[in-house]
Amino acid sequence: EPEVTQTPSHQVTQMGQEVILRCVPISNHLYFYWYRQILGQKVEFLVSFYNNEISEKSEIFDDQFSVERPDGSNFTLKIRSTKLEDSAMYFCASSELAGGRDTQYFGPGTRLTVL
Amino acid sequence: AQKITQTQPGMFVQEKEAVTLDCTYDTSDQSYGLFWYKQPSSGEMIFLIYQGSYDEQNATEGRYSLNFQKARKSANLVISASQLGDSAMYFCAMILYQAGTALIFGKGTTLSVSS
């Protein structure tokens, strides 16, 4: 069964450093998403992406964040200058269509630790 | 504001028993979807079941069923014949089709199944 994959599974970085989290969405899916889950808290939407542009973003997704589809398979989340409060599990998700009856399928997550 | 409420931080059940995990939602939108996801201790988010606001019948997927009571704005997950592998965090989520692509999550319920 097709699945969303994410690398790395765990990333440790120093405050102020840039990190890139990578995702390979399900191959026939057209909509991509990033969510984050701070330890012990609920999952929060960051951004959705379609046709090589952002279709929606939350208040959390400020100028330090960016997303990109650098090639036909990868979808990345870049955090330019990490802060301690960026420590969280970051989930990539994809769906065949936006909203509708179409389910967002999540990857296994990348646990980001900022020291 | 649109939100999802899961009032049970933890639930305990014996193997082979049925369990109901509560979820209430708050929206004035007429067109929305409701989802349940399972998050085992390994961290991934696994889609379980979906219910659309216009669906007249309750959704079922194997041992999972969604008890959808639209007037009460509740979307409870029922797991029949619990198994040890059902021990996990369970999240209820909502999408508002007119508003965009973001899933709105509840805080989750931890289910523990014992033998």
Give descriptors for this structure:
heterodimer, A: 115 residues, mainly beta, 7-stranded mixed beta sheet, 4-stranded antiparallel beta sheet, 50% strand, B: 115 residues, 6-stranded mixed beta sheet, 12 strands, 53% strand
Descriptive overview:
The complex is a heterodimer of chains A (115) and B (115). Chain A is mainly β and 115 residues long. Chain A has no helices and 11 strands. In chain A, strands 2, 4, 5, 6, 9, 10 and 11 form a 7-stranded mixed sheet that branches. A 4-stranded antiparallel sheet of chain A has the order 1-3-8-7, with no helix packed on it. Chain B is 0% helix and 53% strand. Chain B is globular and about 45 Å long. At the A-B interface, strand 4, strand 5, strand 9 and strand 10 of A face strand 5, strand 6, strand 10 and strand 11 of B.
Short description:
Chain A has 115 residues and is mainly β. Helix content of chain A is 0%, strand content 50%.
Please tell me how large the radius of gyration of chain A is.
13 Å
The tally of helices of chain A reads: 0
The shape of chain A is globular
Q: In what range is the share of β-strand residues of chain B?
A: over 45%
Helix/strand/pairing category of chain A: mainly beta
Can you write the helix and strand succession of chain B as a string? EEEEEEEEEEEE
Question: What is the C-alpha radius of gyration of chain B, as a whole number of Å?
Answer: 14 Å
SSE pattern of chain A: EEEEEEEEEEE
Share of residues in helices of chain A: under 10%
Give the helix/strand class of chain B.
mainly beta
Between the first and last Cα atoms of chain A, what is the distance in angstroms? 37 Å
Uncertain stretches of chain B: none
- Shape, principal axes of CA atoms of chain B: globular
How would a crystallographer describe the biggest sheet of chain B? 6 strands, mixed
**Amount of helix of chain B:** under 10%
